[in-house]
Amino acid sequence: MKRNCLEYIFFITVILLITWIFSCSGRPGKDKVNTPVTSVNNSPETEEPAVNLIRLIAPSENASVTLNEKIKVIMEPEGRFSPDSVKIWFDGKMAGIVKSNPWEYEIPPELNNRTGKKAIKIIAFRQRHKPQTITCFVTVYSDSEPRRNSYRVVNVYPHDREAFTQGLVYYDGFLYEGTGQETRSNLRKVELKTGEVINQHNLDSKLFGEGIAILNGKIYQLTWQTKVGFIYDLESFRLINKFYYQTEGWGLTVMNEKLVMSDGSNVLYIMDPEMFLPVSQLEVYDNKTAVRELNELEFIRGEIWANIWQTDLIARIDPESGKVLSYIDLKGIMNDPSFDTSVNVLNGIAYDRKNDRIFVTGKNWPELFEIKVIE
User: Fold this and answer.
1) Would you state the torsion angle of the CA atoms of residues 224, 229, 231, 237, taken in this order, to the nearest 10 degrees?
2) CB atoms within 10 A of CB 120
3) In the chain, N or C: fewer CB atoms in 10 Å?
4) Which pLDDT value is given to residue 180?
5) Which contacts qualify for 39-43: CB closer than 8 Å, 24 or more apart?
6) Cβ 258 vs Cβ 270: under 8 Å
């Protein structure tokens, strides 16, 4: 009997010992779940709550800067923490990094190479803290005042007064013209010397035709607000395809096997001709302002020329930077007192590359002019 009692006590002791071991081993248990643990904030891999590490002193929001100049970024630590490092981006490109006082950096001129509204982004880092991001915008203006060019008329040719000119191209001895206005929009091939229409395709009456361009045996034509364009066979004017875009359609030209499109703003879109998707864009500025209402376009001797709607001016634009190189003032070229050029405005530029000839006309103008620009 005594032996049985001893065996019973031994058995109970073993059971209690096993229970105690499991309880201390960290396996699930009611008491263990409620036991406090060391604060996670003391772990070296754990982030502290977000704090402000840096403050941007300069440049100020919407500051004006000049093309090709250094842009000085000035910062200072904020609060009780200083950052370990600050990275600076300009216009989407990594510019540099600062790791100690003075918290300053000069964005190099080679990054400040395009006019327009550009973002400066700084990201401050500190170990165990969430990065802090600050973004501001600056406006980059041209580094030179545009020249002012006059002109000389070389030849005058007849032009259809019913042609509300929206696009104009000279190609292989003929003019190609896109015209606008609902119920009257069309695409036409025109004999230069006589103004005779050789071929014509009329758009749907609901469409307002806009700029045209010729590339690889195809004619591209925009429409104004319907966000659809058309591709035609150059010889037959047979419709080949349609394309779509997100802005209004105004002017169109060809530059280095790409299409350049305007939408009435100061932005030019460089478009892939196969998918008609933008691959890049230019914001056009002179030394004082954004140059808006860019209309009909032509690529001439490495420059983009653009009619500025409701003016007598053509802007000559640097395709690398977006700055205006010069303005051609064509005031008085339509020298007919009975003709109202405030309504039927200058619009239409065509370039004969083979013979280095420049042609201009306007909406419903009775004449088309070959001009020489006086530099």
Assistant:
1) -40
2) 22
3) N
4) 94
5) none
6) yes
Residue among 132, 173, 150 nearest 352 (CA): 173
Which strands make up the sheet holding 277-283, listed edge to edge?
252-255, 258-262, 267-272, 277-283
CA–CA distances in Å: residue 340 to residues 108, 187, 335: 50, 25, 10
Please give the single-letter amino acid code of residue 119: A
Identify the pLDDT of residue 48. Answer: 57
Q: What is the pTM of this model?
A: 0.83
Q: What is the pLDDT of residues 106-155, one digit of tens each?
A: 999 999 999 999 999 999 999 988 999 999 999 999 999 999 999 999 99
- 79-103, pLDDT tens digit by residue? 788 899 999 999 999 999 999 999 9
The structural domains of the chain, ordered by start, are 54-141 (2.60.40.10), 147-374 (2.130.10.10)
Kindly give the residue spans of alpha helices, DSSP state H, lying in the chain: 2-24, 30-33
Question: Strand pairing partners for 231?
Answer: 220, 241
Strands 324-329 and 313-317: antiparallel
- Tokens 């929009």 correspond to 185
Q: For the chain, which ranges sit under pLDDT 70?
A: 1-50
